[in-house]
## 1
Amino acid sequence: MKRNAPLVLSFIAGLVMILAFFFESQTLTVAENEIQNYGVILAAFALGIASVNLIQVHARNISRGTTLERVYSAILIVSLVGMALVGITKGQNHPTFQFWFNAIMAPSQSTVWALGAFYIASAAFRAFKIKNVDSTVLLISAAIVMLGGVPIGEAIWGGFPGFSKWINDIPNMAGMRGMMIGAGIGAIGAGVRMLLGIERSYLGRSE
Amino acid sequence: MMERITKTDSRVIYAILLVSMIIPLLKPLGLPLTTPAETQALYDLIESIPSGTPIAISMDCSAAGYDELAPGTIAVLTHAARKGLKVIGISVIDAGPSLLQKSIEASELGQKEQGIDYVNLGFVAGGETAMASIARDIKGMYPVDFTGKSTSNMPVLNGVNTLQDVELLICVATGTPGVPEWIRQVGDPLKVPIATVVIAGLVADYAPYMQSKQLVGMVPGLRGAAGYEGLVGKLGRGTAGIDAQSVGHVVILALVVVGNIAYFATKGRGKGKGGKA
């Protein structure tokens, strides 16, 4: 029962969504809408479950971890609970919530994101070497696209934007289309496997 | 000498890049910029939409990528405000509503009236499933807006029940869920034109959608933002940022060139001694 019920539910839900996509029927549309609504509700609950799980993991860190882990985990729990409480009781537009978001969360995430530029610069210096034909083509293409994408490239030579656009529109587009078609076919295969109960990883480790 | 270059401390490279990018941010170079064709296409489309028409903007962007997308988003919102369009803000990323609010307040849309000229509806969990649900029933998915006001009689939502009732959907995207999902759930099935303000790193991924006309316009990274700022005649962080990015790209390429020179100069030196190549 524990294993078969989710499989049957998944099969029915998936079948309804596929049929509703291909056939026009009021009954199927109503069923499709209801399933989508359940999906949104389940996703909202999943956020709650994820929060509980996060608190459990970090509470364990506080009780058993090293000094540094305790500090980090305590900051995480205080921030999580604090923002959730203010957001739920006062609303997300409340100045306190907005302050935490605008003064702490957003700048922190932006900083980590921006650090990537420095690592890329360092990695490019050390690893981007002309060792064979492949790496030479890659390096020349990257240089053209980098210079074609910024005004200084255009100022150096007016042909960079055109070459950059050609690389993006022809070789890149061909590669991207191939990947997208491959991913699409893969998704169909994965969907069929799930519908038929062959793919069961979503049921959890014990299954 | 060349051996020393190959062993340059990473912190030196970080410092070179940091200094070279800070200078143009403080003192922009004012390099001439050609507006990307896809950015011009979005500008022309918004320009052609009659005043009072509703458009939707989905803030599907993380706080991490917001700094790159903010200038483009602000420029597009300013353009929409000047055109008198009704802007309906939605999001399927949790940070989206707060970031959209920041963008609205930084643009000329913030000077207009909330609930009448624009609304920030907030976040719905569920990714692509949520997109499909929002597309079908906006007020059902958003009984209240971001500030907690009821949407049932909100003037900005008059006549807007599904996403088919908007003239354009702009997705501000840093990843998934984002443009491909909106195209699957809204663009293709409901025939709603979709445009995007997108980080430069995703431009290659989304280029096929521009070619197939599943995207009607794109503001790619700071280059697109600077172009759009020029089109609306209000230069801002995008214009300053693209100068910094220009210098950054040149510095990285210069580092690659220096790295290669040092690599070839020292190549094979260590082999005879049994050391590292």
## 2
Amino acid sequence: MTASALRLSRTGMSAPVLRAFRRAPSGMIGAGVVAAILVVAVLGPIVFGDEAQERDLTNASQGVSREHLLGTDALGRDILARLIVATRLSIGLGLASAALAMVAGILIGVSAALFGGRARVIVLRTIDTMISFPSILVAVFFSVILGRGVTGALIGVAASTAFHIARITSTLAISASRRDYVDAARVLGVRGRPLVVRYVLRNIGEPLTVAASVVVGSSIVTISALSFLGLGPQAPQYDWGTMLTEGVKAIYRTPAAALGPAGAIAISAFAFAFVGEAVARAMNPRLWTAPSGRAARAVATAPAATLVEQAAAAGRARPDERVEVGGKDGPPALEVTDLVISFPSAQGATEVIKGVTFSVGEGEIVGIVGESGSGKTMTALAVAQLVPYPGRVSGSVRLHGRELTDLSRKELDSLLGNDLAVVFQDPMASLNPRLTIGTQLGQAVRVHKGFSRRRARDLAVRSLAEVSIPAGETQLGRYPNEFSGGMRQRAMIAMGVMKEPSLLIADEPTTALDVTIQAQIMDVLHDINARHRTSMILISHDLALVKQNCHRVLVMYAGRIVEDLEADAIRTQAVHPYTKALVGTVPEIGQSRTGPLPDIPGEIPDPADPPPGCPFHPRCPLAVDRCSVERPPLLHRGGGHRAACHVANEGVE
Amino acid sequence: MLELRDLSVRYGSGRRSLTAVDRVSLDIPSGATLGLVGESGSGKSTLARAIVGLLPIAGGSVRLDGADHTRQAARTAPAYRRRVQMVFQDPHSSLNPRMSVGQAMVEAVGKREGELSRAERRAEAVRALESVGLGATALERYPHEFSGGQRQRIAIARALAVRPQLIVLDEVTSALDVSVQATILNLLTDLQREFGLSYLFVSHNLSVVSLMSEAVAVMYLGRIVERGPAGDVFGRPRHPYTQALMKSLPSLSSARAHAPVVGDVPDPRNLPPGCPFHTRCPVGPLTRPDRSVCLEQDPQLVASSQPNEAACHFAAAPGGAASEAAGAHV
């Protein structure tokens, strides 16, 4: 049973591995060199064995000549021939000791991962102690104990590298064995060797293969070094190391005698390393299929961390989405016009945001909802000028009339410190674990406003009070890891609002938190909004949260706004079939469950290959012929309500 | 079919030990769903893992159809594994990225009772995939080639492949979009009907639990604070913590309410004395200094005339008002 499952796995794996391997040029070159070395190792002694032994004392210690391409040694033997013959011993010893080291290292490393408690600690400490000795010292130690010669060198070198392999293996195996799929396999009843091989070893195979190739290379080098010291093969046996010893003696007269073996050692070490790396890459199933738009989507949804290049504001005219902005009360705080974000892809460039226009009034809380991949986070990052490299942004983003897309890096830093604040989903990723909360809060105002230490401290305490962290004075000295998730998110919000920004962008600020804590954080945000008339963008996958906490909702689908309406009206007045479908999927307590729950069949379109016409038409229950041909414009329906749907907008000018 | 009595699960030992699950008693009825609700740190996932044998049990008992399975060896035995399966939260990490769907499914089918030929195993794997709406074309593909919803279907198919009677579902829709969540919930309901499965449905999402469960238990800091029929627990919650959870839950049909409870969940290594909820409780000593009993006595779940039991000295009467009489017996 187990054997046939493995057989299935092998036949399913080798072909794509080979195909992926062939795509890597460095691997192919390395493989060619390794193949040549192996051929030489096998055939060399047979073909050149006699020539390598032929003494010609009249021609001793000669330099490079036509008959002797690398010269001759002290006994007049041809060095090239001897180098070729020595390949078998050098490579053989290297491979054998590497194999020994890998087997021993993996066994020790995996056993550390399998053991729990004290046994694991003992194994790990032993490994740590062993690797603290320099490898060559360990190798010398073993080969001296076991006696000069081939066996001593072999075991000495294997012992010196085995513990390094054990260290890598134990670290990788311990982390791999903590993965859910190992637990899932255990629950199925998979145990023993299949569990270790299929679930743990196969998932750490990639780094171990690289390590193995490096070990082959380094073993060849270390064995040569032992021979160089006279601890390796003894005459009449010889390898590249012993040849190097002889060559070095005559290096001033006949440099080729030393450079030949040195070159052979270096080239084989490199070749094995290249092959190992290419094999490791080829083992990853993700690389077996040609890259598709999914990769572009992965880039697009990756969290941004760095301030990135400014986009050339090549404003594209999109008359259908041009909209007079202007809120209920006075000029809007934020105006986003024709925002387009693209990422380089196999097709040239893939647009993940395809022309987004909206505004946020002063003191207004605008929610952005949509499924993952709809572009809601990317839109918010673009507003904060935080689109990750290599994304390109075009269009206009104006905060209180000031164009943000033209700002210099320095002006941007100051903007993000003062006028605009961003709160991300995971506060731990945004806080420095090595600095106290007080230092991090204080830093912000001291840098941007030039406040004194005392004044910054007072402000920090006040900000903490504002986000309902009591006893701020005592909290300042604590580190982020001493805070709960809710406290960290409060601290992040405190940091964001201490300079009273006019716009706060909160990207899934409560997704990682419990509902009771979420309610507390929402109270804090509303409090800030009410007290300072701070405009806010709240991004969430939770329609109910957005409905309850925002004035207006933007519903995004496939990189575009498909509906823009008052939050309170989302259940009763939404007209877009996607919005209606989303509303239908929100489960409610006490909902009577007679039939199946409403869902949205199908998947969101691939941004690299969107369907023609309306991007929602393949999933839409109302789609008519026109929907698959012509993309519906986002039209005003009165009262600030916009929708992009041919069917819903029938009769709307 | 599954009976837990005074079940405790502990992490670590000595002074640094942590009782993640504290004397929990639950019954999972045959062919029905028990919902288990709680926030992070409540012990609900620990309990789920202990049931499927991923964690040892420190005290109490586990019985499956009357047979005792308290010993760790009994819960890791093939006979138990075949009957009790689990689906994990994140289908991105619960499927081995280095095994094709076919390899994973064939392996799971191979854990069934009796010997099957290779062709039979493959046919069974396809049948399990078809029951979750996927087909034979999935066999040759790897997990990364599927969307999150499809991966969760594969994980469900893998659990089904051994033909279990009980499936522990640990936050199975938390990593998915709402549109996909509905699809997975519908699938689970259909499978339950088709195969007569029992579910332990673990989730932090009250509304999803209310849709899926016949009976519900609410956990807080390792204990069950309220349990009963789903309609009663969600319709007339009696424990102030259940009430707070329901008030905190965003809803499309109601307006925003202020946060009903203050503060964070206490450190489980350093539990408050008396009732573990008293540090946050809106009807406890925080607002009612006269209710000092909450600081001194740990309330137990007691049977009462109501269908839902609550571990609270001042549990609300079914009408909703806190019952003074309920506290009078102490």
## 3
Amino acid sequence: MLRIEALTKTYGDVRAVDDVTLEVPRGQLVGVIGRSGAGKSTLLRMVNRLSEPSAGRIGFEDADVTALRGAALRRWRARCAMIFQQFNLVGRLDVLTNALLGRLNDQGFVASMTARFTGAERADAIRALDRLDMAQTALQRADTLSGGQQQRVAIARALMQQPDILLADEPIASLDPRSASIVMDALRRINREDGLTVVCNLHTLDTARTYCDRVVGMMQGRLVFDGAPRELDDATVKRIYGVEAEEALSETVTSTQLSAAS
Amino acid sequence: MGWATAGPGPRSPAYAMASTASTFDGDPVATFERHYAEVATQRRRRTLLFWAIFVVILGVAIDVSTFFPERLAEGLPKIGGYLYDTLPVLRPEHLFADVETAGSLAYWYFNLPKYAGLLFTTINMALFSTLLGAIGALLLCFAASRNLAPNWWIFTLSRRFLEFCRAVPEVVFALIFVYAFGIGPAAGVLAIAIHSAGALGKLFSEVNENVDHGALDGVRAAGGNWFEEMRYGVLPQVWPNFLSYIWMRLEINIRASSIIGFVGGGGIGQELHYVISFNYYEEVSAIVILIVLTVTCTDLISERLRHRAIGRENLM
């Protein structure tokens, strides 16, 4: 169970995330929707402490995540893997090494500085890549892959962390519709098969409706909706998206047109 | 009547609104022209001031360095005279005769085996000091990058240390090390290595400051520590640039290591200093030509290698 209590992040006078309280039980696939600038990214980045909260608390099971420092903090980051809109792979390294980076937290200093990974770790990496149908690219440089392929490698890296939670920050926002559905299918499959909690920022409504167990709506840093996808009525959508509502609702404009292959 | 002229005329409501909201009173063009003239005058004044200061500084510099035309005219022939003295006496008929015959190439380069040995030492000094300097720079450059340093203290300390390393000339370090470790290549290597670490460290850290932070975020989110962020998030991105700078430094260090001998740092420079001091004129030219050839060759080779290294895929 991930517990977020009264979490707030301020940049000067701007409250990017404003008093958000949220509980996510194990195994749920939660979509966070909202306009750009609504605070979705900041919220996710605070959960794995890439951003420091200004106020509030994050708890996971019995641990107080907000109090973690040093090695314990890095251990927590490994436990809640993150994938990014821009994939954030190391472009000049091969796909296999990128996947192996998911194990950095377990590595000793010399082993990680000399990039010495064990045979067992390599085997795990290939298995993770294979789950995402990317094993055949293992020795290719990551920056030679297409966006969708890079995102799948990023998911394989996340799996290598053997995480309890997977945070996905706009994972399909820079992808074409077909790649987007492959990536979303993979996320849901992992969510179902491994019982992995997934919290996923999405800017389009139809993706959230198609894939998520639960949808959380954010507006100007505040939580304005929390419920099942079917509870999202037009009035709520208009409230969340404001002037962008038409865009968010129009299935043709919003990139995806996903057909879930459940 | 052009659209730019002021006065009453048909205006769209949007245009009228924009014009009342703007700071221009009356005719916008005239207001702009007035403002433009002001700015231009200001700029002209600044340029004039700049040149005035420049001329004054130039004058002071010439005076201090006694860079006077008559002095130059007086001194130039002396340079020619010295160069003429160093020229070997070569006789075409004996050019390829043995070492014993005056006027042959072999006679001029009678000491070639010794020079070759010293040149070999010099090149090795350059290689080793570049390697040491590169390692030093690599260890410090991440802490000395504004965007990567873990905190202000470490950043400032490593920056200032690198500055110190490159601000002190190699010759000064060499003098100190010759005093400490005695005359010989060890002192020269250490002196050049420290200076190289300072120079390379600055260049490296500037490359680091332009790094794309996406990969860094990725490594951090996977639970990597600071060293792992540098190793995997930064190094693969900057390595080709680093390599290119290291090669360039090697070229510089081959020149530097032939000079460092003058203060007792070993290698061919020490021999050059010796023959200059004792006015062995022909040997001066023999050694200088060898050094020039060596530097040119390494420049050519290293340029080729550098381009190959940068163009290669899968460097890391």
